[in-house]
Design a protein that fits this description.
The chain has 80 residues and is mainly alpha-helical. The chain has four helices and no strands. The protein has one domain. It starts with a helix and ends with a helix.
Length: 80
Amino acid sequence: MLKTHSEITERIKIVRRLDFTKIDRINTTYDEHGQIIKAILAKKTTEAQKLLKAHIEQSKIEVRKITLGMLQDARKLTSG
């Protein structure tokens, strides 16, 4: 389990860095993690899996938005 956690942590490092640049994303992430932990502790495996998948997908969407915004800002600077 520790090996799996380490591998996943390494793979999502950049996502975490970008996702944690916005205060609303930090708060949302903590809320989502709390919901996932509650489901796990309540042994609601299916619910925990659904929450985890939704969290990952939303994080990917948000990171794409952040990345596109950064690219647009960079273009403005170089074309200005």
